[in-house]
Amino acid sequence: MRRKNTVQPNSSLNFILYDMKASIKTSTHFRNYSIQIITFWSIFKFYQPCAVWRVLMNFEGMF
């Protein structure tokens, strides 16, 4: 009886920790995915014209 009582909270605690870990993992995965999309969009919007401008300046320097 005592052993059952000691095992039961540990298993429920492990389950809660595993559930929290899984939810944190999925949330961080989703957050990383959204951050990748945001960084890709910011690179596409802001750094791409800068790269095109640098390439044009390099061509202008070549001529």
TrEMBL record:
Protein name stated in the entry: Uncharacterized protein
Protein source organism: Oikopleura dioica
